[in-house]
Amino acid sequence: MKILICDTLNEKVLKELQTIGECVDISSSQKKHEDLEINIGDAEIVVIRSATNLDKAIIDKGKILKIIARCGVGVDNIDVDYAKLQNIFVTNSPAANLLSVVELTVSLIISAARKINLSDKHVKEGKWNRKEFVGIELYGKQLGIIGFGKAGKLVSKIMKSFGMSVAFYDPYIKDWNGPEKNLELDELLRTSDVISIHVIKTKETENLISKQKLDLLKENAILVNTSRGGVLDENYLIKLLKSKKIFGIGLDVYSEEPPKNMDTFKDLNIISTPHIGASTGEAQLKAGLDTVENIKKILAGDTTVAI
After folding, report:
1. Could you read off the pLDDT of 249-267 as tens digits, one per residue?
2. Closest CA to 153 of 216, 98, 192, 108
3. pTM of the full predicted structure?
């Protein structure tokens, strides 16, 4: 059984996969797309992370493909519907990256509130003008969470320890009797001092936070996105920051990766990281091991782990 590995995996995960079949690793290839097209033809299992896209054209080349295994949460880089039509099982590891993404989210919020990236650059340039870096306290402010699943709830729990109140928007939560306020999206955007996005990318969430929605933001608001690119209008968000209508931005994901508008980030209170939410040793190991277990279950006939 041939297993095609398209993205970097933990060594322990690689060894576990080798017990299942013959592994072909193209993760470090300089011509990965070409190698993917060549090697997928006789692969029964393909293992990916977020850097590899499996669209209809690529899936069609997998003549005997049985399983697409995603080490991570989002599957927007896979044409899941088409894979299902071809009787290919798609599986992911939705819980493995949770802590790492949440910790990054919290760090982006704090960094934006205190302009840590700008002040760090300032000191390293040999300067010492503290008046440029007046921040804001999080205590007593409202945190608005868009998407109140596991990640959103954990961010809520952590940020409450800073003395923040919490509101959320999630159309899938109808009845709520918890201490957090359940608001409609417009109201959440109008009233929150810090907004953190935690949604998967679907047709419903694409450009969810549009130009019109961003115009609802409070003056001096902070917005953080560690979920998926394409769910907000990044270019307009940056325009708001440039015009000082909002206070700061934290982005780990982008509508296009790598983003082509990096020149517009310069000297702004925007903390930008290269899609590293799941990039901790612990998260990658857990995602990989969860993926191996999912593959084993599907091969044994247990398809409940498939999407």
Report:
1. 999 999 999 998 888 888 9
2. 98
3. 0.90
